[in-house]
Amino acid sequence: MEKRELLYEGKAKKLYKTDDKNLLIAEFKDDLTAFNAQKKGSEDGKGAINCQISANLFKLLEENGIKTHLVETLDKNNQLVKKVDIIPIEVVVRNTATGSLSKRLGIEDGKVLPFTLVEFYYKEDDLNDPIICSQHALLMGLVEKREQLEELVEKGKKINEVLKEFFVKRRLNLVDFKVEFGIDRDGEIILSDEISPDSCRFWDMDTNEKMDKDRFRQGLGSVKVAYEEVLNRILEEK
Ligand code: TMP
Predict the structure, then answer these.
(1) Are residues 141 and 199 in the same domain?
(2) What are 46-80's pLDDT values in tens digits?
(3) This prediction's pTM
(4) Nearest 5°: CA angle at 13, between 7 and 17?
(5) Could you identify the atom of ligand 1 that is nearest to the CA of residue 36?
(6) Ligand 1, atom 16: nearest CA belongs to which residue?
(7) Whose CA is nearest to atom 2 of ligand 1?
(8) Same domain? 52 vs 69
(9) Among 41, 64, 82, where does a domain finish?
(10) What's the CA angle centered on 99, arms 236 and 132, to 5 degrees?
(11) 3-state secondary structure of 40
């Protein structure tokens, strides 16, 4: 399958049309951004690592009954994906308090949460992706019905259960992550976008080292070495 015109360029990926109107090609970029692109950088090979990480995790999730947009990996930076209508809600799932949760509510950084927290953020750069509640999502028409929001929460929790167990075996603590969903041509809600160290927080369970984009956000050094380590652990047979 070949790339046709560029449909959309985001901060970490480009989406291209193909000859099939139901399929797109997602190209993973080496660019890194933080704080709504106020901080910018790039590391050679980052896109290829994330492309592989995300493909492996999406396959794992498919094996566990979670439908995704992934059709196949084409080469090191490119995936063939189903075209969906993206729901403009970032679903953030948290196991441990850190980041904006600790900042907003004063919950101690590193505190293990008593239950899995699922939050919605409105995906709108001009507004800085604000946190929203279900009623906001409904009154802005981000989804058609309340049940779809419940489905997002259920899918977020299911993804968390599968990934948490997978990463514990690899000595990585899945602290939190962000996922995006889209509606496919059958009207089903499926996992889209990516799951990678750009969109998750992983803390090494033995050293507590941050193995994710917080390295870039907080100026802790190269991300690539850490992302490669995450990929190697994903590829370990357990
Ligand atoms: P936060 O603590 O900054 O709200 O981030 C929660 C999770 O969401 C964390 O794993 C990083 C991820 N995330 C994104 O993928 N994109 C974003 O734009 C933001 C702000 C967070």
Answers:
(1) yes
(2) 999 999 999 999 999 999 999 999 999 999 999 99
(3) 0.98
(4) 25
(5) 18
(6) 199
(7) 99
(8) yes
(9) 82
(10) 110
(11) strand
